[in-house]
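Case study 2.
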Amino acid sequence: MLDILLQVADDPNLEVKLDRIGVKAFTQDLINGGTESSAVTTEWTLAEIMKKPEIFDKATEELDRVIGRERWVQENDIDNLPFINAIVKETMRLHPVAPLLVPRLAREDIQIAGYDIPKGTRVLVNASAIGRDPSIWDKPKEFCPERFIGKSVDVKGHDFELLPFGAGRRICPGYPVGLKVIQTSVANLLHGFKWKLPNNMTAKDLNMEEIFGLSIPRKVPLVAVLEPRLPSELYSL
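Prediction:
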């Protein structure tokens, strides 16, 4: 993609002008958006699992059964790990990295759910509120990956009750890569290590407060003690 952007930069025939400074800014947005969102989602996933160790046990049982303990998880393994996928979906439901989706603009007067929305109104979709709506989700404040097992609800913008990446033409353009990165990272972090709380902390002591902003990271960074689960040779660089 970067090669294509550089090829068209400074093209006088473009309807929307693009120069090399624009290419640099666009690339920086892609990198910043992808790294922070993936890191925040992964950290929330691990925090929720450390709060409920039975989920870790269930996840590692699936990993040991499907992957074994002689190798790491690969990207092409993800489709065979339904519980890992469910864990990621549940994190994205409860802790969407972007609480408010990219704004829309009403192109015409419209009425939605009894509300009159005039043409030109800026519309914000509250993904965080949708993910915690008790009329949609049973026990919405509880972290329960099992709710997605056997269900067709996905994060790709087709199911409006779960919209971590948005939907339609303004869906996050990097969602296929971002989703795979998060799924593979979470799978390998759970497969490779046993996660424990430090200093005799209990699950009740784990701070789960959020910082509200463009993203919703943890207020207190996650601190954990890790123990290897796999043969030592797999950890060598």
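The chain is about 40% helix and 10% strand.
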